[in-house]
């Protein structure tokens, strides 16, 4: 079922006409009642009744709001023109908001692609774009949006790992744009049948579950230490090579292979050590 425009007229002119009918009817009742219920008296009563019945067709539409019309249970259309309007008095009307709304899902406990339990939550920004589908295709579209959004969030979280083991593979923690785009597509695919458009969806909470948080923190610390050590060793090797090249190029000292090995060993200990080194004066010979 798709939305269509409902029949309605500007309400101000109709209201003026009804006021004229009421005034004229009151005048007819006053003049007719003085002549022992003459036909003008009944004409005034009829004008009062007609004006009262037609006034039921007056309604107002607020900005970013729609009025869904039904005629004896059949969908008659939706009025979106804001202001005072008039329509068929037999129409029943139900207001529905077209404003942008948002909500934050509850924290869900799910397993990521690696099977690790994680906690995840998301913020969803949405808006009704088809009032007919929102009212008639689902029972409660607001509750439908919340439940389907959490279902899509759970499905999306199971498609990615929390941490990326490979730089070419996206993860929940490191590829926010890709993950949020996937989440938005998952939610919109579920809500399209309810006439709802998803404007934005993004993760608001992401953490390992409590039972494995400590172990995963230790793993992250270990990965950071290994990465830092690799960087230190890479820099130290470059500095040692540069030192040997400078000594050889400037002719400061001639070193055989054994002395080069000793020098390299000492430099690597100095450059890669965690603590400050203490100088040791060698009073003897390298070969003694």
Textual characterization of the structure:
There is one protein chain. The protein is α+β, with helices and mostly antiparallel strands. It folds into 3 domains: 9-97, no CATH class; 101-208, Band 7 domain (Tetrahydropterin Synthase, Chain A, 2-Layer Sandwich); 217-272, no CATH class. Helix content is 47%, strand content 22%. The chain has helices at residues 11-33, 39-54, 131-136, 141-157, 176-191, 210-250, 257-272; strands at 9-10, 58-61, 65-71, 74-79, 83-86, 92-97, 101-104, 108-111, 117-128, 196-208. Strands 7, 8, 9 and 10 form a 4-stranded antiparallel beta sheet that branches. Strands 1-5-2 form a 3-stranded antiparallel beta sheet, with helices on one face. α4 crosses α5. The N and C termini lie far apart (97 Å). The model has no long low-confidence stretch (mean pLDDT 84).
Can I get a quick summary?
The protein is of the alpha+beta class.
């Amino acid at each position: 079922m798709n939305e269509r425009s409902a029949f309605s007229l500007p309400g101000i002119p109709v209201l003026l006409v009804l006021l004229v009918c009421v005034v004229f009817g009151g005048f007819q009742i006053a003049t007719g009642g003085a002549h022992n219920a003459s036909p003008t008296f009944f004409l005034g009563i009829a004008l009062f009744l007609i004006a009262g019945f037609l006034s039921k067709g007056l309604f107002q539409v607020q900005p970013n709001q729609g009025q869904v019309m039904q005629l004896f249970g059949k969908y008659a259309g939706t009025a979106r023109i804001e202001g005072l309007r008039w329509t068929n008095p037999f129409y029943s009307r139900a207001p529905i908001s077209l404003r942008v709304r948002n909500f934050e899902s509850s924290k869900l406990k799910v397993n990521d692609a690696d099977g690790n339990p994680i906690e995840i939550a998301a913020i969803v920004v949405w808006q009704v774009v088809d009032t007919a589908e929102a009212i008639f295709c689902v029972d409660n579209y607001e509750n439908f949006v919340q439940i389907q959004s959490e279902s899509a969030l759970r499905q999306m979280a199971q498609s990615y790992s929390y941490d990326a083991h490979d730089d070419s593979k996206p993860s929940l923690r490191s590829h926010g744009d890709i993950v949020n785009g996937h989440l938005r597509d998952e939610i919109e695919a579920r809500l399209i049948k309810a006439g709802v458009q998803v404007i934005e969806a993004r993760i608001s909470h992401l953490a390992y579950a409590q039972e494995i948080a400590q172990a995963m923190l230790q793993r992250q610390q270990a990965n950071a230490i290994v990465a830092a050590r690799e960087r230190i060793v890479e820099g130290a090797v470059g500095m040692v090579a540069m030192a040997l090249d400078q000594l050889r190029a400037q002719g400061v000292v001639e070193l055989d292979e054994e002395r080069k090995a000793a020098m390299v060993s000492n430099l690597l200990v100095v450059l890669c050590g965690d603590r400050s080194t203490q100088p040791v004066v060698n009073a003897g010979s390298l070969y003694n």
